[in-house]
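Milestone 3.1: sequence recovery, worked example.
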């Protein structure tokens, strides 16, 4: 079985039987979903998913900031009172 990026695992049968219980017991951590002992999906709570999306957004914004900082020498200085 290939390695999982989750602390918990469950089978498809477990998922069908009690999806809400799985999410609750995982305490906002990802659950590896297995089918025939093969990793087929990850299940995460809505709050965990939203945190992941926020982290990806922050990462992308940090890349933009880094690119713009490289070009600071070509920036035009502006006085905010002149706007």
């Amino acid at each position: 079985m290939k390695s999982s990026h989750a602390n918990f695992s469950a089978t498809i049968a477990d998922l069908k039987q009690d999806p809400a219980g799985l999410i609750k017991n995982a305490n906002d951590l990802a659950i590896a979903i297995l089918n025939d002992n093969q990793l087929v999906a990850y299940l995460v709570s809505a709050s965990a998913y939203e945190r992941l999306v926020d982290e990806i957004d922050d990462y992308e914004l940090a890349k933009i900031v880094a690119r713009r900082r490289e070009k600071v020498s070509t920036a035009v200085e502006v006085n905010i009172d002149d706007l």
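The chain has a mean pLDDT of 90. The longest strand covers residues 38-43.
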